[in-house]
Amino acid sequence: MTRIAFFHTLPEERPFAEQWAVRHDVEVTFFDQELHDDTLPLLKGFNGLSYKQRTKPNADDPFGFFRRLHDLGIQQIAVRSAGLDSIDLPAAHAAGLRVTNVPSYSPPAVAELVLAQTMHLLRHIPQFDERSANGDFVVSGLMSRELSEITIGIIGVGRIGSTVARIFHALGAHVLGNDIRDRSQLSDIDEFVTKEELISRSDVVTLHTWLDGSTFHLINAERLAQFKSSAFLINASRGPVVDTDALISSLEHGRLAGAALDVVEGEGTIFNYRFEGPIPDERYRKLQSLPNVVLTPHIAFFTDHAVKNMTQQSLDDALAIITGGTTPHEVHY
Ligand code: NAD
């Protein structure tokens, strides 16, 4: 029987993978652990691998690591996410491994969190929470704006960004878009403008680009200085798209009204862990202490629909390659 190892399993993924295993008559074995040097030997005897993790399996020697994986009889890595940040693709390909991702498991999952974050920021929920917790039920000083009055700027209008545009357009906001590709067919975007114009005109700026050399610290000190001081920044793309130190400085100096971050630089060392004492990340502790920041631990993808899609699609991809077939989700370097 074909055997697939399912690494770093979330409890919520397991029922979807089990349903799939029965349907395809494949044995899926679940491991809680991430894939690293110490857990690599667990793959002995398996035909395939599905995994999702935020840290690289072996950052020091990726070529050697993937060679050892291949020597165990593994031909492919089915990543259960769109982002491939944890895979050193040249090293995986050099070892003869075929890598797949799940490019689109549910754009609405992310877009709906952006809506929730926007509403939290616009309606000053964190500040009202803080007041209420201190027995202060005075409303003055925290008047909101309504969606039909605001301009939202979306940087990166691909699958998720265009879904954000659809939602906000339907709710009456004015939608500005920016992309490096021609997306002019998207009718939910009222105007396509430069990043500079988008940032200077928007009440909410939300980021939906992929992470690469050109988007690393796309929002840096220089760009933050162009925001309206009444504007909010939302990042549910990838942490390093925003320069965290520059963002903290802008928030502390009142040059930005607030931010909602589902992803942050260095999140791999804190998200998905439980800490008894202080969180071992000074910048995250700083963000947590700011009253106008909404933080979530990379949960935009975390809906039943999305988890089912990413789980079962990755297993479909693994099986396609193990059985000598192809899949449109194979990533070519
Ligand atoms: P996508 O590839 O469909 O869209 C990305 C868009 O960004 C493309 O249209 C691309 O042309 C544009 N882009 C790239 N560089 C740009 C730049 N410098 N300026 C302007 N536009 C640029 O990707 P997607 O599926 O919509 O995902 C978007 C982001 O969301 C990715 O970073 C992905 O990793 C992330 N994501 C996060 C979560 C989460 O749980 N927080 C879940 C899924 C995806």
Automatic annotation (TrEMBL):
<keyword id="KW-0560">Oxidoreductase</keyword>
<dbReference type="GO" id="GO:0051287">
    <property type="term" value="F:NAD binding"/>
</dbReference>
<dbReference type="GO" id="GO:0008720">
    <property type="term" value="F:D-lactate dehydrogenase (NAD+) activity"/>
</dbReference>
<comment type="similarity">
    <text>Belongs to the D-isomer specific 2-hydroxyacid dehydrogenase family.</text>
</comment>
<dbReference type="InterPro" id="IPR006139">
    <property type="entry name" value="D-isomer_2_OHA_DH_cat_dom"/>
</dbReference>
<dbReference type="InterPro" id="IPR036291">
    <property type="entry name" value="NAD(P)-bd_dom_sf"/>
</dbReference>
<feature type="domain" description="D-isomer specific 2-hydroxyacid dehydrogenase catalytic">
    <location>
        <begin position="5"/>
        <end position="331"/>
    </location>
</feature>
<dbReference type="Pfam" id="PF02826">
    <property type="entry name" value="2-Hacid_dh_C"/>
</dbReference>
<dbReference type="InterPro" id="IPR006140">
    <property type="entry name" value="D-isomer_DH_NAD-bd"/>
</dbReference>
<dbReference type="Pfam" id="PF00389">
    <property type="entry name" value="2-Hacid_dh"/>
</dbReference>
<protein>
    <submittedName>
        <fullName>D-lactate dehydrogenase</fullName>
        <ecNumber>1.1.1.28</ecNumber>
    </submittedName>
</protein>
<dbReference type="InterPro" id="IPR058205">
    <property type="entry name" value="D-LDH-like"/>
</dbReference>
<dbReference type="InterPro" id="IPR029753">
    <property type="entry name" value="D-isomer_DH_CS"/>
</dbReference>
<feature type="domain" description="D-isomer specific 2-hydroxyacid dehydrogenase NAD-binding">
    <location>
        <begin position="116"/>
        <end position="300"/>
    </location>
</feature>
<keyword id="KW-0520">NAD</keyword>
